[in-house]
Amino acid sequence: MRLPRAGQSAGLSVIAVGILITTACGGSSSSAYVENGQPLTFATFNPYTGPDASFGPENGSGCFAAIKSIAAAGGVLGHSTATCLAVDSRGDPADAVPAVQKMLATTTNLMEVQGPSSDEASATAPIINAAHIPMFADTGQPIFDKSTFHYFWRIDPSDAYYGYAEALYAYDAGYRRAALVFGNDISSQGTVPTITSAFQKLGGTIAINQTLTIGQSSYRSEASQVIAANPDIIFTETDPQTAATFFGQLKQLHGVYPFISTGAQATQWIQAVTGTIGADSLAQIYHECAGNASFSGPAWNEFNTNMLASSADVQNPAQWTQDVYSAADYDGVIISALAMLAAKTTDPKVWNDYIPKVTTAGGSAQVVYTFADGKAALAAGKTISYSGSSGPVAWDQWHNSEGGFEILGYASANGSQPILKVYPAGAVNKLVS
After folding, report:
1. 76 pairs with which residues across the strands?
2. What does the pLDDT read at residue 430?
3. DSSP 3-state assignment of 232?
C-alpha cells in the first residue's frame, strides 16, 4: 500500500534467512511464561532489503521508543528490559516464509511481531497466527479486512480505505478523468480496486490503468499512453526510483499532471522525484493521502521524546516522529505490554485476548496515554482504554481499527507537507461496497 520512506536504516541487527540477530539470546522460542528477569522480545518482521527496504527501519523505530517507555516505568511483570528484534522478510513471500519460520524457531521470549507488511503478509500471517504470537500488521491488503486470524491486529487503515479516501478527495477537488499509474509489486497494487470502484461510483471516469514494471530505465511508452488518455488527475504508487523516472519522462513529453498517492511519502520519494521534475513542479501537483494522526497530545509527546532519544539504535530518529507507521508500531508494543499486565501473564495465548480490554473497554474505563499511566491504573484495579500516539484505537470484530485520513501537499520553500483536507473516521463509509 505505502511507498518507501527515507532510505536511511535504523540501527537494528537483522535476521535474513538462516541468520540470527546478534542481540537476541539463542535457544528455542518461548511463547508461554517467561521467567522473571529475562528480557521480552518484540520483533519487527518487514522488508529490510529489496525495493521496500525502508519499511523495516520505519516500523522498527517505533519499537525502540516503546521499550524506553516500558523500562522507565519499571517493566512488565518482573521483566525490567525488552529487546527489539529485526527480521528481514526481503519483501518477497518466497524469502519471507523461511525467515518467519526461523524467527519463530530460534527467538527466545518472543512476545509479539510488528508486521508483516503487504509484501509478505498473505504467506506469513497464517504461520505467525498458528504459532500463537500476536502480530500488529502493517499490511494494507483488503483480504485482511475481515480476517479470522485470532492473533492478527491492524491499527493502520487498510488499502481499501485509503483508496476510498483518495477517490473522494479527487472528486471533491473537481477532478473527473483519472489515470491509474501503479507499480507491479503487491504493495503498490493494493488500492487499485477501491480507487476504481469509488471514483466511478462518484461519477468519475478511469481513462487508463497503466501498470509500471518497477526498476526499468525508461517509461516513455507508458508515459505516452497516459498522455493519450488525457487525464486530469493521476492516482499513483510506485517505489521512489520508478516514480522519478516515470514523472521525469512524463514532464519531458507533456508536462506535469496533478497526482495523489498513499502513505507518508517523505524524504526518499520526494528527493527522487524532485531530482527529475524539480521541487516547484512537484509542489504544484503533489497530493498525499495519509492516516489522520494529530501528532500532538500526551501519547505522542512521550513517543516523540523517546524516539528522539533513540539515536543509539535508530539512524536519524527525527524522521520518524511524525510517521504514522512508526507511531502505530510504537502503540502496538505499548498495547502488548499493557495487555500482559491486565492478564497478569506474559503468555501470548492468554494476553492476546486482553488487547481489546486495554484499548476499547469503553464505559467507565480510564483513558490513559502512556504505559506508565496504564500500569498505575491497572495496579489500582481500574479498567483502562489506551489512546496512543497514532490516535484512539477501536477494534472491529475482525481486529481492524480504521481511523480518519488527511490529504497533504508539499511546500517547495521549506519541504513541509501542509494539510489540505481532513476526512474524519467514517467519512468514506458511503463508498464502501
Report:
1. 79
2. 80
3. coil
Task: List own/partner pairs for 394-398 with CB under 8 A and 24 or more apart.
Answer: 394/359, 394/360, 395/153, 395/355, 395/356, 395/359, 395/360, 398/144, 398/145, 398/146, 398/147, 398/148
pLDDT per residue over 403-412, tens digit each? 778 898 999 9
Contact status, residue 8 vs residue 319, Cβ threshold 8 Å: yes
Beta bridge partners of 405: 291, 423
Whether residue 39 is preceded by a cis peptide bond, meaning omega within 30 degrees of 0, is: no
Can you tell me the mean pLDDT for 111-134?
97
Cell numbers standing for residue 285: 501537483
pLDDT at 402: 74
- Residue 16 scores a pLDDT above 70: no
Burial tier of 22 (Cβ tally within 10 Å: 0-12, 13-18, 19+)? exposed
Q: Is the pLDDT of residue 369 over 70?
A: yes
pTM comes to 0.77
**pLDDT computed for residue 22 by the predictor:** 30
Phi, psi of 147 (to 5 degrees): -70, 140
Please state, as a whole number, how many other Cβ atoms lie within 10 Å of the Cβ of residue 312: 8
Contacts of 278 (CB under 8 A, 6+ apart): none
